Amino acid sequence: MAANIIDGKAISAAVKEQVRDEIAHEELKVGLAVVIVGDDPASRVYVNNKKKACEFCGIKSYEYALPEETTQEALLELVDTLNADANVNGILVQLPLPEHLDEKSVIERISPNKDVDAFHESNVGRIMIGNYSFLPCTPAGCMELIHSTGVEVSGKECVVIGRSNIVGKPMAMLLLHENGTVTVCHSKTRNLAEVCRRADILVAAVGRPNFVTADMVKPGAVVIDVGINRLDNGKLCGDVKFDEVSEVAGWITPVPGGVGPMTIAMLMRNTVTAAKIQK
Ligand code: GUN
Predict the structure, then answer these.
(1) Which protein residue's CA is at the shortest distance from atom 4 of ligand 1?
(2) E strands along the chain, which residues?
(3) How many angstroms separate the alpha carbon of residue 138 from the centre of ligand 1?
(4) Which of 69, 149, 203, 273 is least buried, going by the fewest C-beta atoms within 10 A?
(5) What is the CA(248)–ligand 1 centre distance, in A?
(6) How much distance in Å is there from the Cα of 191 to the middle of ligand 1?
(7) Is 279 a catalytic residue?
(8) 61 has which bridge partners?
(9) pLDDT at 2
(10) Within 10 A of 265 (CB to CB), how many other CB atoms are there?
(11) Is 117 a catalytic residue?
């Protein structure tokens, strides 16, 4: 039997509408600064999508497109200026930065209560202990998609493939906060297929096209595909082999139209949260 498709586009649209209504009803004045350095085409697309979402929600967006050769000092100075600017509630520095720049020190310079990506050490620490204002956007979006299925996380076997700081690790934490039994897999995991087959909820964040095949999926499982891989033919493809896994899973996210749009919707939500915290 074919899986139910989880419609990330529709769910993200609902989140953005909720954010827009909240801003309107509470007459909030909300601003998001987006900093992009260099001209990576994928980053350009993401930044444009973030701007569009801001427009929809009634968030003022301030874009800072800096040249590739921007120095560390100049970038840190811009972050300082944005930290001090009362019109800017959220600051997002699009990653990856060009190689000569030190991402870590840039992220640590962002004021934690304007860190709408939740990448700052203090926000990461707060996620760990379950006392957070901002959820990291992609894992938070995955949780919304899981909730939309009606499948309860509590007591379930949850397997996350990938242990990045941006997705895998915080994803595991959010599932744990909802009382899932969580396993994190990575390149050194033995018997990966067997471990994945235990999962009632399987989250793939590997960055390898078509990595998760049908034999790795428990019949009826919820499968969340975080991968956005660009193939040689220009097409986007997830980490999950959609055609065959959708024959086994109970629920599955498509790529595109699954996790991707959710990340931006959750960024909008974090930006409103930031404005409220600062008020
Ligand atoms: N690059 C890829 N994903 C992200 C994200 O969520 N935030 C930022 N700042 N950069 C990214």
Answers:
(1) 95
(2) 4-5, 31-37, 60-66, 90-93, 157-161, 181-185, 201-204, 222-225, 229-230, 236-237, 251-252
(3) 9
(4) 69
(5) 31
(6) 31
(7) no
(8) 32
(9) 93
(10) 27
(11) yes
**Whole-number Å distance between alpha carbons of 270 and 276:** 10
Distance CA 181, CA 160 (A): 11
Q: Which residues, 6+ apart, have CB-to-CB distance to 181 below 8 Å?
A: 155, 156, 157, 158
The one catalytic residue in 94, 115, 169, 239 is 94
Q: How confident is the model at residue 225 (pLDDT cuts 50, 70, 90)?
A: very high
Strand partners, 183: 159
Respond yes or no: is residue 215 known to be catalytic.
Answer: no
Query: CB of 94 closer than 6 A to ligand 1?
Result: yes
Find, among 94, 121, 123, the residue nearest to 277 by Cα.
123
Q: From 36, 40, 46, 135, give the residue whose CB has the most ligand 1 atoms within 8 Å, as the site to mutate.
A: 46
Q: What is the pLDDT of residue 94?
A: 98
Computed over every residue of the chain, the mean pLDDT equals 97
Q: Whose CA is nearest to atom 9 of ligand 1?
A: 94
Average pLDDT over residues 11-17: 98
Percent of residues in the chain assigned helix, strand, coil, to nearest 5: 45, 15, 40
| Ligand 1 pocket check for 222: Cβ under 6 Å | no
Count Cβ atoms below 10 Å from residue 22 Cβ, excluding itself: 17
Mean pLDDT, range 170-179, rounded to an integer: 98
Choose among 44, 116, 56: nearest CA to 266.
116
- How far is CA 182 from each of CA 36, 145, 161, 215, 276, rounded to the nearest angstrom? 35, 17, 11, 20, 32
